[in-house]
Automatic annotation (TrEMBL):
Keyword field: ATP-binding, Kinase, Nucleotide biosynthesis, Nucleotide-binding, Transferase
EC number: 2.7.4.9
Similarity comment: family membership: Belongs to the thymidylate kinase family.
Transmembrane segments: none
InterPro entries: P-loop_NTPase, Thymidylate_kin-like_dom, Thymidylate_kin_CS, Thymidylate_kinase
Species this protein is from: Sanguibacter suaedae
GO-annotated biological processes: dTDP biosynthetic process; dTTP biosynthetic process; dUDP biosynthetic process
Name of the protein in question: Thymidylate kinase
Gene from which the chain derives: tmk
Keyword Cell membrane: no
GO molecular function annotations of the record: ATP binding; dTMP kinase activity
Stretches assigned to the Thymidylate kinase-like domain: 13-198
Functional summary from the UniProt entry: Phosphorylation of dTMP to form dTDP in both de novo and salvage pathways of dTTP synthesis.
Classification lineage: Bacteria, Bacillati, Actinomycetota, Actinomycetes, Micrococcales
Catalytically driven reaction(s): dTMP + ATP = dTDP + ADP
Recorded GO CC terms: cytosol
Length: 224
């Protein structure tokens, strides 16, 4: 039984834009499916549900909004996301991997927008009925390097400025330092393969997957 009281595994990826969360979440999902035999649900915030796609469009590409409105819209997306997708999958015993979760709100709305950390966190905890991941992977990278990797037109958050993104990065690092049992911080400037190997090793430890073959090792007959 995991820390959130279900049979499933819940993993979140965090970090600034351009750090490789999408690639690494996909690779981790493929690896966990192989070594555990479980179904893997990959999702994201905002936008992991049909309603979430509407909210994502308005938050990231709609009209400008004040920080409190932004925080409330993220929380609304998160509440629906957890109730309709994440928690049911965990109760089935699936692996859920999400690209961003409530730590993004604390980093961006409290760290970047300078709202109250406690207020933003408590809002998300209320929205999710206290659901936290078993493991959170922070892919850490200088925000200017991450921005240079982006190819699409920037959204509202990506246009927020260098100082905003520096505050957000520091908020992530501070948060990770406070809860090392859940968080793992990895340098996102490495190769895709080296980061993937480090992610798998750290996640296996936090999920209690002892003895599973890591990337590059042969798959044994017994998985779990």
């Amino acid at each position: 039984m995991t820390s959130h009281g279900t049979d499933g595994f819940f993993v979140s990826f965090e970090g600034g834009d351009g750090v490789g969360k999408t690639t690494q979440s996909r690779l981790l999902g493929e690896w966990l499916a192989r070594v555990t035999g479980r179904d893997v649900v990959r999702t994201r915030e905002p936008g992991g549900t049909d309603l979430g796609l509407v909210l994502r469009r308005e938050i990231l590409h709609g009209q400008d909004m004040d920080p409190r409105t932004e925080a409330l819209l993220y929380a609304a997306d998160r509440a629906h996301h957890v109730a309709s997708l994440v928690r049911p999958a965990l109760e089935r015993g699936d692996v859920v991997i999400t690209d961003r979760y409530l730590d993004s709100s604390v980093a961006y709305q409290a760290g970047g927008r300078t709202l109250s950390v406690d207020e933003v966190e408590n809002l998300s905890l209320w929205a999710t009925d206290g659901l936290l991941p078993d493991a959170t992977v922070l892919l850490d990278l200088d925000p200017t390097v991450g921005a240079s990797r982006l190819t699409a037109a920037p959204d509202r958050l990506e246009r927020a400025g260098d100082e905003f993104h520096r505050r957000t990065r520091q908020a992530y690092l501070d948060r990770a330092a406070q809860d090392p049992a859940r968080w793992v911080v990895l340098d996102a400037s490495g190769t895709v393969d080296s980061i993937h190997a480090a992610v798998c090793a750290a996640v296996a430890e936090r999920l209690g997957l002892t003895g599973v073959p890591l990337p590059g090792e042969p798959l044994s007959d017994e998985v779990g």
